[in-house]
Amino acid sequence: MIGKIFSVALFGESHGPGVGALIKGCPPGIKIDEEHISLELSKRRIRDPRVSTQRIEPDEFDILAGIYKGYTTGAPILIFIKNKNIESKHYEEIRFKPRPSHADYTAYIKYHGYNDYRGGGIFSGRITAAMVAAGAIAKKVLEKFSIEVLSYIKSVGDIELNTDIPIDKIREKTYLSPVRCPDEETSRKIYEFISKVREMGDSVGGIVETIINGVPPGLGDPPIDTLDGDLAKAILTIPGVKGIEFGEGFKLSRQLGSDANDPFIIKSGKIMTMTNKSGGINGGISNGMPIVFRVAFKPTPSIYKPQRTVDLKEMRETTIRLKGRFDPCIAIRAVPVVESISSIIMTDHLLRWMAWEKYLEGNR
Amino acid sequence: MIGKIFSVALFGESHGPGVGALIKGCPPGIKIDEEHISLELSKRRIRDPRVSTQRIEPDEFDILAGIYKGYTTGAPILIFIKNKNIESKHYEEIRFKPRPSHADYTAYIKYHGYNDYRGGGIFSGRITAAMVAAGAIAKKVLEKFSIEVLSYIKSVGDIELNTDIPIDKIREKTYLSPVRCPDEETSRKIYEFISKVREMGDSVGGIVETIINGVPPGLGDPPIDTLDGDLAKAILTIPGVKGIEFGEGFKLSRQLGSDANDPFIIKSGKIMTMTNKSGGINGGISNGMPIVFRVAFKPTPSIYKPQRTVDLKEMRETTIRLKGRFDPCIAIRAVPVVESISSIIMTDHLLRWMAWEKYLEGNR
Amino acid sequence: MIGKIFSVALFGESHGPGVGALIKGCPPGIKIDEEHISLELSKRRIRDPRVSTQRIEPDEFDILAGIYKGYTTGAPILIFIKNKNIESKHYEEIRFKPRPSHADYTAYIKYHGYNDYRGGGIFSGRITAAMVAAGAIAKKVLEKFSIEVLSYIKSVGDIELNTDIPIDKIREKTYLSPVRCPDEETSRKIYEFISKVREMGDSVGGIVETIINGVPPGLGDPPIDTLDGDLAKAILTIPGVKGIEFGEGFKLSRQLGSDANDPFIIKSGKIMTMTNKSGGINGGISNGMPIVFRVAFKPTPSIYKPQRTVDLKEMRETTIRLKGRFDPCIAIRAVPVVESISSIIMTDHLLRWMAWEKYLEGNR
Amino acid sequence: MIGKIFSVALFGESHGPGVGALIKGCPPGIKIDEEHISLELSKRRIRDPRVSTQRIEPDEFDILAGIYKGYTTGAPILIFIKNKNIESKHYEEIRFKPRPSHADYTAYIKYHGYNDYRGGGIFSGRITAAMVAAGAIAKKVLEKFSIEVLSYIKSVGDIELNTDIPIDKIREKTYLSPVRCPDEETSRKIYEFISKVREMGDSVGGIVETIINGVPPGLGDPPIDTLDGDLAKAILTIPGVKGIEFGEGFKLSRQLGSDANDPFIIKSGKIMTMTNKSGGINGGISNGMPIVFRVAFKPTPSIYKPQRTVDLKEMRETTIRLKGRFDPCIAIRAVPVVESISSIIMTDHLLRWMAWEKYLEGNR
Known about the structure:
The structure is a homotetramer.
Chain A: E1 7-12, E2 18-24, H1 34-42, E3 61-65, E4 67-68, E5 71-72, E6 77-82, H2 89-93, H3 104-110, H4 127-143, E7 148-156, E8 159-160, H5 167-173, H6 184-199, E9 206-213, H7 227-235, E10 241-246, H8 257-260, E11 264-267, E12 270-273, E13 281-282, E14 285-286, E15 291-297, E16 307-311, E17 316-320, H9 330-363
Antiparallel strand pairs in A: 1-2, 2-6, 3-6, 4-5, 7-8, 7-9, 9-15, 10-15, 11-12, 13-14, 16-17
């Protein structure tokens, strides 16, 4: 499961009955209206066929447990999202011809050929709907403590968002952009680029940046359960992720300490850092500054160009030419997913931190 | 704990009695001689004062449980490494003056001032000795199945190892280099650079690359316990890590699918990929190719230049000037640590994978 | 979750949409036909109104994930059992009047009044349908290794099954008895007794005994994850359980060592024990003899006699008189539940054990 | 590990360097003086050779991590207790002759003969010293919230403590009795009985009863992590335990609901139950009444009478006659161990409960 006190398990296949999430440890009494979950799920959908797949799903969901009269009960919550709009027939053709860099081959090996290969099975981006549904609950838990998680596209291919965007603009503009980039000009450029890539039958990667505001200092449980470690593990459950960096990340590896360190200052009676190159985490513990990290998504492995592969049954080399419906850039659809997974981890660590804090209050 | 079946817990402070590791789930009957552990621990020591701290510790250790007559017993193993050569007095001076970008401040907040602040307490690089001791056991488990984990310096500052180094050379040369870089010329450049940085009283970051050979396809337990996710979480327990990327990592975010995908081929009757841009993992599961990842280390936050900070007791801004003994580049000392932590995760996933494999054998 | 490699999570409320189980870590390629699950679920139903509740549910279920073309895929399995035949109105009346010895009060406190109180919510016996569904999968995993779990009624009230029943008879007769007791005479007596208790508007407790055959020696992971400890924890998730004892259990506390010890002997070339007072477990590890334990169920707390309680809203003492539909003896309905929960734990420990065994084979 | 937030791992062998406990998640700032731990450890020692083993150990311990200047730091705590007074030579003789009902045989099988067999290795009662040391920390955590765990001998053989003993007397008298029974007359009878058993070269079982006072209602995390389930699993890690029952336990299986239920009443403005047959737990959650349970210990399997066993090497039947130093009744030495293990679980659930409570406070 993702998380220890507030924890989430995932299930479901791309072309089976549906996907879903089991959420344990959610405190009782949190108002959850179905519209909120629907709204979150809608962030995964991009209705513009020039930059997104034509498999548009309504994401109808059922809350099968744990919510009563519109409030969390404290018992395990189960959200189930039905699959609709399924086209499986193409997958029979490629069943034994694994798509390069997809999980087709590793799934075949690990599950000894018994995996539900249609649409990628559990390895499909479809599972991210369940992540977003669980994240919708987590966001409500964080909301009461004014913790806000904002993700957006930082770059696609070589097109990068370079200007500093004020937090309000990020909040307002990200989901108005068809490519989830809060800056209009960059958004337009990325949009054109993805459209072109799609026309070429190709795909492209991208980077999602996340800012988490309002985090109190003290979250994270080193030496093992560090806040950044738990975020990294959870983020890597999202299909297509190949890297994560906190604060200035890899750039710090090229810097001197005198440049990289964040000096402490006092501002309106509160300890802060002048810069935030550490991305809000030191020693695996939040330091009160915004948590910042970037996640690298590879290009969708499913492309329309012919590719070399092997026939697993006949054990010979061959080629495939895909015919299904694929996203030209999963990064842009992953924006709310990164937000959701991050919200789950933050909720878990918030509750873990509260256990001690409550104890220590009584301690005085 | 790191790991689920083969699992490791860590404990100990920089200036307390020592540091150590508790290792559970290690199969019985594995020969462990103390020299092997000593040798692994020695890889953490760099005796050249121009690139390393002057706190050189003998790393004397005691095996307090779980090994009998030179073999693992199957019971929990406890290895304890005594602290020697401690100089704590300087830490009293800076107790309430947190070092920028170190865990001093977050520790103070999280532990309500009760943490052992001397030498950074549990946040010291000292804890990595325990990681290496545990990794020494894990390496022995992997050895029987010819799985080999090799880490080395990929870059320090802007100096990067760019040529392809054959695996044999990596194995032989890495620990002969005082900066853990298997290429002699790059090693020399990095050595000079770190020396210069050290003379300036500054520090510098670096990147550690890791290659894991001999991994059977099928390791990793998605949707949650992916192999890369578990590696990432564990690697982030190492002090100073700010990012991790698998295969081509962040570079993939700038590529097209047609460039990024690894075509499948058959070579000597075995399925392989032509390229390895995925770094040996697809869908969170090993694909049989070498696992490759890079870890970004920030510069040591402890530098000798004066820095702005705050006085936590008097709640006012101030400056500190450190006097202790620090590494100018933790990345070079972290090479065996990355190797060790990776070995722990690989051992855990190897055993987890074996549970099913054994069952499925009987299944036939 | 129950279990570590093969693990089960539960969800659902008595009067909500349904109950269910999420099963992780089940090996792929295990044939699961829906009839098998239906058959197992039917064991929970006792259609005789003289000894059972009139809430008879068809237990229609949906497999929402993890099974494809009739075989487990290796991915998480989700089984959902819809609630039918619900009568909730009575629960509004008693919402603030907790039933003595039921979880009404503790649920109200823990969940701050937000729990779904109808029908006892998650504390209803209804959740045991999910346990049985998960157990049906586990039994299939065990079947391949000829491990068989058999539970049956040992006693109800003071009526006890005293004669030794051959294993074949237990297997054949238990579920033919309306009170799940394989001995016809004892079954008849218990039947009459429960009928009488039911007519009186009262309830009665009972003891379920379990025998697990075919367990290889070596299962169990001390010092913490002992086989008996894991069984005990899992069994205590079943509503109404107040005690568990292994082998001769509490009786051993009154015996001398010379009577209590099980001497080792060799029989057909195999090491066995002459007696089995230890119940097949020593030091938390299976010893190859049948595992035997007994579970004490208290009387159903819901009885028709008037009872003293308090009004939680008005904070005054009052009385309640229940009108719902309740079992006069939950023990008899719990027989397949104990079997199922035990099967889950045995499956988990079988797989955990296999991890080492597979490793050690390669070791030679 | 035992526990989820406050968690304990154990290690060490009977005749190795020592035994110990790793304690994670202990809040910072709790005063721990070494005398307190020493005092707790001394409760395990019974210096009267007529009822106890002659292996009396000083239980010198080292705190190797996590406590600084007499206070917990919040970091993992490691306590190590050295083994002294070891006599191993006898164990060579019986190495391949497993003691009936001891873990010698199961350890040999599970660990493929690599286990440290001397003195029973990890299966020795020696490990309980580590349990008590960890419990000493847990008791300090509970103390701040006035939660008190009291264990004592309820029966040995057929001699039972039948009178109701006031809580003050239990607190004061238990450890003054050489057999840990707070009632003087029963204590005397038990003392005489154990002495006689010991003279006969035999051993005897017993029952330890535990009362936990001051527990707030609401502790326990159903449906899986019930308070009683977690207690049961943890208690079963103690060597020699064969059963556990809560409240009236097995007796409830013979009762009617109208007798077994605990009516709710209001006393000094607080909701309580008139009786406490449920033992303070309903639905896996504490109800505010004292938690009461009984643990059955079998007789020490090591007795001086000749016993049938097998020679594992030569695969033939044989007999053994033990010569070591053994306790005639482990139950009496287990009293502080049950107390300690229970304290660990209560601490964990107290902290888990606080996470939600703190959240819900902020919620208002």
